[in-house]
Amino acid sequence: MTVAVFYKLLAIFLTVALGFVAGRMRWLGSVQHDPARVLGHAALYIFVPALLFRTTVRLDFAAMPWPTVVAFFVPVLAVLGAVYNWQRLRPGGQADGAAAPSVRAIGASFGNSVQVGIPLAAALFGEAGLGIHIALVSLHALALLSVLTVLAELDLARAGKAGRGSLLQTLAATARNTIVHPVVLPVLAGLAWNATGLGLHPVADETLATLGSAVVPVCLVLIGMTLAYHGLQGRAVGALKLSLLKLLLLPAAVLLVARWGFGLSGLPLQVVVMMAALPAGSNVLIFAQRYRTLEAEANATIVFSTLGFVATASLWLLVLAWLG
Question: Between 66 and 324, where is the model more confident?
Fold first, then answer.
C-alpha cells in the first residue's frame, strides 16, 4: 500500500463522513423528503450519463490493448454471471426484489476504478501501467452496467408478467426498458456519435467534462447520507460476503484466467489483477437505488470493501511479486 493510495483512501472516507454528517444534521432535509434519493437521481440522470457519453465518444478503439482487455473482462463477466445465477436460483434469492440478484452481482464485480484505481495504477506501475488501466476503465462501466441492466430488466419483466403474456412481449418490454435507461442510452448515443468521427465541439466537451466531474464527490456524499438515514438495517453479513467476493474471489479469477488462460505476464497481468482487486465502487449504490433494492447492503458493501482493501491490496501485491 503506497502513501499516495493511502491518502486517496483517507480522502474518500472523509468525504463519505461529510455526507454522513450532512445526513445526521439534516442539512438537505428530513428523511421523509429522502434527499439521498434525490441526490442519487441527480447522479444517475444527469452526471453519470454525461460522463458515460463523453467517455464513449472519446474512445479510440483502434488503440485499445484488446488482448489485455479481453483477459480482464472474460473472468469479470464470468464472476458477475456466477453470482447473479447463484442468487437467482437459490431459494429466497429474489425475496428482496426481482432485481436483487443483479444488485448483488454488481456488488461482487464493480470496482472503484477511478477514485482508488487511477492513483493506485499511477503509483505502482507508472505511465505504462496507467495507460493499460485507463483502457480498462474506459470500458468498465460501459460493459458491466449494460450487462447488469439487461439482467435486472429481464427479471423485472418476468416478475411483472407473473406468467402472463408471451415471451415476445416480455423480451420487447425488457429491450425497451434496457435501451431507454440512463446508463445504456448515453452509451449507445456515444457509440453512434463516435462512429461519425466528428468528435465533440470544445463547448460541448467542456460542459460534459464539468458534469462528469461531479460524479465522484456526489456519489461519495451520497454513500455517507445513505448510512446516516438508513444505517445497515441488518445487511452487514450480506455486505461482508459480497466484500469478500469482490476483494478475494474476483482478483483470483482474473489472475487464473489472465495468466494461464490468456498467457498474460509482467505489467499487463499486474494491472488487470490489481484492477480486479479494487473495492466496490459508488455505482453499486447508484444501481441499487435505481431499482430500490438492497440499498443498505450495497452501501455497506462499498464501505466494508474499501476498509478491507487496505489489507487485501498488500496481499495481491505479494502474490504478484511471488509470481514475478
Answer: 66
